[in-house]
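Quick question, first post here. What does this chain look like in 3D?
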Amino acid sequence: MMELWCAPLPDKPPAPESLELPADLLERKRSDRHSRHTHASLAGYALLRKALQSHNAGWSLRRLRLTTWGKPYLPNGPCFSLSHSGGYVMCALGRDELGLDTELVRPRPLRLPEAIFSPAERHYVDAAADPLAAFYWLWTRKEAVAKADGRGFSSLFPDEKPGRSRVELAGNVWFLHRVRVETGYETHIASGRANEPILLRRTCLD
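> Answer (accepted):
Ran it through. Tokens below.
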């Protein structure tokens, strides 16, 4: 079973030092602690810590490491993925590799680059009754797979079959799970298991 933790973004970011992050991550967050992105990122790690502590397994953020692609992971611990948008921060937790993306659906230009969106995907968005909602539905799926893959934006790719629940990428198979978390948000988790239950856990960080 996967867990999806969701919390409102706190008014003030947690102090980087209070999270007991490893030195490389701590320095990165400390150097840009006043940006809104860093505020949300720190809140994400606070939510991850809360999720880990709920299992009473002795997992600590101090043990976090980064892959060569910069993806954080916890050696001998659960897999996780963080995402934030609008007024919420979320954390997906599971036994196997996974990727999470959530987006507040808000107006934006719908220019879809060919390097990321196939003709079939662009047609899907253009022909939709609500093109904006269709875009965010596609985008959160793409980013969830990219985060599960671990290579970030370099693994975003045009998909000739938009909407399929099973995606193959770099020799791995990912299954997409749509989660209804908050009104006005689109959220997807990519994992290596089909039909895996997801436990939604709401909390606060203040």
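The CA atoms of residues 102 and 187 lie 4 Å apart.
The longest strand covers residues 2-8.
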